[in-house]
Amino acid sequence: MKHQQFDYLAKLAKEKDITLVAVSKTQPHEKIKELYDRGQRIFGENRVQELVDKHESLPKDIEWHLIGHLQTNKVKYIAPFVGLIHSVDSLKLLAEIDKQAKKNGRIIPVLLQVYIADEETKFGFLLEELLEYFDKGIFEEYKNISIRGLMGMATNTENEEQVRNEFDSLNTLYKKIKSNYHQSNSDFSILSMGMSGDYELAIQEGSNMIRVGSLIFGERG
Ligand SMILES: *Cc1c(COP(=O)(O)O)cnc(C)c1O
């Protein structure tokens, strides 16, 4: 556990008015509790079962974010409590979240994941596809979902220029959507980008929510 790194990031986030999501996937409960005791309240997980287990055993005022790919048949397990789903990558998934949110009498906050990387393994909507959906007003159909912003992952590469360009393209899209479709809706206000290896670049390119795991917890086992 890297307390100094955590304290540094927490302070940076506060100064810059950025939200720090501590990515606790694969980490044991004790380590999460340690960060909780240092003041951290937002944790991100990428697996549904792990998220459910941790939510059950850890303090109830933790805000749990799902950051990894979500299968439609698993939405029901997290719908009662999830604080933010970063990884919405299809209309089918959106429809299921809407349905489960309604069942639970909730409005579930989500981010739309956008495909910006030069890698075939990363999920997400295409930029043009997303603009088309906003144009057609498709997202307005989902009454039990609050679309709070966008999430993206840059290519895992040493090439800073490429990572910067990818983040910039996401920020440009974010601003476009915000100004064209959300003038009166301040709920659309989150740009989730940046992880341990690229959070500095992400912040420079406009991120206001970073998802940091290994830098805080140490390498995952
Ligand atoms: C694991 C993960 C992170 C955190 O990665 P680190 O490199 O450990 O900071 C961030 N976002 C997503 C979507 C992840 O799956």
SSE map:
Blueprint: H1 3-16, E1 19-23, H2 29-37, E2 42-45, H3 48-57, E3 63-66, H4 75-78, E4 84-88, H5 91-103, E5 108-114, H6 127-136, E6 145-152, H7 160-181, E7 190-192, H8 199-204, E8 209-212, H9 214-217
Helix pairs in contact: 6-7
Bound molecules: pyridoxal-5'-phosphate.
Pyridoxal-5'-phosphate binds at residues 23, 25, 46, 67-68, 153, 195-197, 211-215.
Descriptive notes:
The chain has 221 residues and is of the alpha/beta class. 42% of the residues lie in helices and 18% in strands. It contains nine helices and eight strands. The protein has helices at 3-16, 29-37, 48-57, 75-78, 91-103, 127-136, 160-181, 199-204, 214-217, and strands spanning 19-23, 42-45, 63-66, 84-88, 108-114, 145-152, 190-192, 209-212. Strands 7-6-5-4-3-2-1-8 form an eight-stranded parallel beta sheet. Helix 6 runs parallel beside helix 7 (160-181). The longest helix has 22 residues, at 160-181. The radius of gyration is 17 Å and the shape is globular. The model has no long low-confidence stretch (mean pLDDT 95). Pyridoxal-5'-phosphate binds next to strand 8 and helix 9.
Mean pLDDT: 95
Oligomer: single chain
Poorly predicted runs are none
- Placed side by side, the strands forming the largest sheet appear as 7-6-5-4-3-2-1-8
Q: Characterize the overall form.
A: globular
Give, in order, the helices and strands. HEHEHEHEHEHEHEHEH
Distance between the termini: 13 Å
**What are the bound molecules?**
pyridoxal-5'-phosphate
> What is the tally of beta strands?
8
Residue share in β-strands = 15-25%
Helicity, as a percent range: 40-55%
Structural class: alpha/beta
Question: What radius of gyration results from the CA coordinates?
Answer: 17 Å
The biggest sheet amounts to: 8 strands, parallel
Our count of helices gives: 9
